[in-house]
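Progress against Task 2.4 (sequence-to-structure conversion) is shown through the following example record, which the project officer requested during the mid-term review.
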Amino acid sequence: MPNGFKTRGRDEIAGPAGMMMADAFRRAGWSRPDAVVSVPMTWLRRLRRGYDQAGLLGHAVARELGLPFVRAMRRRGRGAQVGRSRSERLRLPAATFAVRHPVAGAVLLIDDVFTTGATAASCARALLGSGAKEIDVLTFARTPQPGRIP
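C-alpha coordinates generated for the chain above:
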Protein backbone atom coordinates (compact mmCIF):
# COMPACT_ATOMS: atom_id res chain seq x y z
CA MET A 1 0.00 0.00 0.00
CA PRO A 2 1.24 3.50 -0.58
CA ASN A 3 2.89 4.91 2.50
CA GLY A 4 0.37 5.96 5.11
CA PHE A 5 -2.86 5.13 3.29
CA LYS A 6 -3.95 2.36 5.61
CA THR A 7 -2.49 3.49 8.90
CA ARG A 8 -1.58 7.17 8.81
CA GLY A 9 -4.69 8.95 7.59
CA ARG A 10 -3.46 9.57 4.05
CA ASP A 11 -6.88 9.10 2.41
CA GLU A 12 -5.95 11.41 -0.48
CA ILE A 13 -4.00 8.48 -1.93
CA ALA A 14 -7.26 6.69 -2.80
CA GLY A 15 -7.89 8.67 -6.01
CA PRO A 16 -4.55 7.97 -7.70
CA ALA A 17 -4.50 4.38 -6.41
CA GLY A 18 -8.02 3.83 -7.74
CA MET A 19 -6.96 5.17 -11.14
CA MET A 20 -4.08 2.67 -11.19
CA MET A 21 -6.45 -0.13 -10.24
CA ALA A 22 -8.91 0.86 -12.99
CA ASP A 23 -6.05 0.82 -15.51
CA ALA A 24 -5.04 -2.66 -14.30
CA PHE A 25 -8.66 -3.80 -14.69
CA ARG A 26 -8.76 -2.54 -18.27
CA ARG A 27 -5.45 -4.23 -19.12
CA ALA A 28 -6.67 -7.53 -17.64
CA GLY A 29 -9.41 -7.71 -20.26
CA TRP A 30 -12.07 -8.83 -17.80
CA SER A 31 -15.72 -8.52 -18.76
CA ARG A 32 -17.47 -5.35 -17.63
CA PRO A 33 -19.17 -5.83 -14.26
CA ASP A 34 -22.58 -4.52 -13.33
CA ALA A 35 -21.36 -2.95 -10.08
CA VAL A 36 -18.34 -2.31 -7.88
CA VAL A 37 -18.46 -3.46 -4.25
CA SER A 38 -15.74 -3.04 -1.63
CA VAL A 39 -14.76 -5.35 1.20
CA PRO A 40 -16.31 -3.74 4.28
CA MET A 41 -14.65 -2.93 7.56
CA THR A 42 -16.29 -2.90 10.97
CA TRP A 43 -17.95 0.33 12.03
CA LEU A 44 -15.59 0.59 15.02
CA ARG A 45 -12.45 0.33 12.89
CA ARG A 46 -13.89 2.88 10.46
CA LEU A 47 -14.67 5.22 13.35
CA ARG A 48 -11.12 4.90 14.70
CA ARG A 49 -9.44 5.31 11.32
CA GLY A 50 -11.79 8.00 10.05
CA TYR A 51 -12.35 6.35 6.68
CA ASP A 52 -12.70 2.99 4.96
CA GLN A 53 -9.72 2.52 2.65
CA ALA A 54 -11.30 -0.27 0.56
CA GLY A 55 -14.46 1.83 0.23
CA LEU A 56 -12.47 4.83 -0.98
CA LEU A 57 -10.66 2.63 -3.50
CA GLY A 58 -13.99 1.15 -4.61
CA HIS A 59 -15.47 4.61 -5.19
CA ALA A 60 -12.41 5.68 -7.18
CA VAL A 61 -12.39 2.53 -9.34
CA ALA A 62 -16.14 2.77 -10.00
CA ARG A 63 -15.80 6.44 -10.99
CA GLU A 64 -12.91 5.67 -13.35
CA LEU A 65 -14.77 2.78 -14.99
CA GLY A 66 -18.14 4.56 -15.12
CA LEU A 67 -19.83 1.94 -12.94
CA PRO A 68 -22.12 2.15 -9.93
CA PHE A 69 -20.51 1.71 -6.52
CA VAL A 70 -22.73 -0.24 -4.12
CA ARG A 71 -22.16 -0.49 -0.38
CA ALA A 72 -23.59 -3.97 -0.55
CA MET A 73 -21.87 -5.59 2.41
CA ARG A 74 -21.30 -5.23 6.10
CA ARG A 75 -18.78 -6.86 8.34
CA ARG A 76 -19.82 -8.59 11.54
CA GLY A 77 -17.56 -9.01 14.51
CA ARG A 78 -14.51 -7.15 15.61
CA GLY A 79 -11.68 -9.40 14.47
CA ALA A 80 -9.04 -7.88 12.24
CA GLN A 81 -7.02 -10.07 9.90
CA VAL A 82 -3.80 -8.08 10.43
CA GLY A 83 -1.26 -10.08 12.39
CA ARG A 84 -3.11 -13.39 12.06
CA SER A 85 -1.42 -16.48 10.71
CA ARG A 86 -2.37 -18.01 7.38
CA SER A 87 -4.29 -20.82 9.08
CA GLU A 88 -6.17 -18.34 11.31
CA ARG A 89 -7.08 -16.23 8.27
CA LEU A 90 -8.35 -19.25 6.38
CA ARG A 91 -10.71 -20.12 9.26
CA LEU A 92 -12.59 -16.85 8.81
CA PRO A 93 -16.19 -17.60 9.83
CA ALA A 94 -18.67 -17.63 6.96
CA ALA A 95 -20.93 -15.23 8.86
CA THR A 96 -18.23 -12.54 9.08
CA PHE A 97 -19.56 -10.82 5.95
CA ALA A 98 -23.23 -10.24 5.22
CA VAL A 99 -24.92 -8.77 2.17
CA ARG A 100 -27.29 -5.94 3.05
CA HIS A 101 -28.00 -4.76 -0.51
CA PRO A 102 -27.96 -7.67 -2.99
CA VAL A 103 -26.30 -7.05 -6.34
CA ALA A 104 -27.42 -9.08 -9.35
CA GLY A 105 -25.06 -9.86 -12.19
CA ALA A 106 -21.30 -9.45 -12.27
CA VAL A 107 -19.51 -7.77 -9.36
CA LEU A 108 -16.03 -6.28 -9.16
CA LEU A 109 -14.96 -6.74 -5.52
CA ILE A 110 -12.37 -4.24 -4.32
CA ASP A 111 -9.95 -4.63 -1.41
CA ASP A 112 -6.73 -2.86 -0.54
CA VAL A 113 -4.46 -5.86 0.16
CA PHE A 114 -4.73 -9.53 -0.85
CA THR A 115 -2.96 -11.79 1.63
CA THR A 116 -4.41 -15.32 1.73
CA GLY A 117 -7.62 -14.73 -0.19
CA ALA A 118 -9.77 -15.68 2.81
CA THR A 119 -11.49 -12.28 3.00
CA ALA A 120 -12.16 -12.14 -0.74
CA ALA A 121 -13.45 -15.72 -0.75
CA SER A 122 -15.77 -15.08 2.18
CA CYS A 123 -17.15 -11.91 0.56
CA ALA A 124 -17.56 -13.68 -2.78
CA ARG A 125 -19.51 -16.53 -1.17
CA ALA A 126 -21.85 -14.05 0.51
CA LEU A 127 -22.37 -12.08 -2.71
CA LEU A 128 -22.97 -15.22 -4.80
CA GLY A 129 -25.39 -16.49 -2.16
CA SER A 130 -27.44 -13.32 -2.47
CA GLY A 131 -27.80 -13.25 -6.24
CA ALA A 132 -24.52 -12.14 -7.82
CA LYS A 133 -23.59 -14.26 -10.84
CA GLU A 134 -19.86 -13.61 -11.14
CA ILE A 135 -17.19 -12.08 -8.89
CA ASP A 136 -13.83 -10.65 -9.96
CA VAL A 137 -11.48 -9.45 -7.22
CA LEU A 138 -9.21 -6.46 -7.71
CA THR A 139 -6.74 -5.35 -5.05
CA PHE A 140 -4.10 -2.66 -4.92
CA ALA A 141 -1.42 -4.88 -3.39
CA ARG A 142 -0.63 -8.50 -2.72
CA THR A 143 1.25 -9.65 0.36
CA PRO A 144 4.17 -11.86 -0.69
CA GLN A 145 4.16 -15.45 0.45
CA PRO A 146 6.37 -16.14 3.47
CA GLY A 147 9.98 -16.54 2.44
CA ARG A 148 9.37 -14.89 -0.93
CA ILE A 149 10.34 -11.36 0.06
CA PRO A 150 13.56 -10.41 -1.77
